Amino acid sequence: MRLFFLLLPWLELFTLIQLGVETSALTAIFYVLATFVLGLAVLRRQGVEMFNQMRNAQQGGVLGRQLLVDDMAVGLAGVLLAFPGMITDFVALCVLIGPLRRRLARLFGAPEPEPYRPQYDQSADSAIEGQYTRVDDERTP
């Protein structure tokens, strides 16, 4: 696995050089810029969506497996698209396709995450300490 990560930049460079040889250098440059912009757009959209889901979960909702598996995977796909190269772009496209993403997660042995439910103190003898003033006492003449 280490060897793959050491060779990945060189393989990416090789694929981009081959793209430039087969088409033109401007096409390869345009491809790199287009996938970078697409990756940033995916990251931005996914970040806003995850932020909204976290806010809803904070207000008493439940964080389900969608946030933990699907949304994080789409964020990873955005990062992979932002990196120049055709290998990471292919992996990103595989991750962006929902059914394929879930199948790959099962193939790699990803556990089924339990939904997050915030814990509340339900005990009857809990007290909240503080100071207060009655507003209606101040209004009486």
From TrEMBL:
This is FxsA family protein. It comes from Halioglobus maricola. Pfam families: FxsA. One of its GO terms (cellular component) is membrane. Keywords: Membrane, Transmembrane, Transmembrane helix. The chain crosses the membrane at residues 25-43, 73-98. InterPro entries: FxsA. Residues 111-141 are annotated as: Disordered.
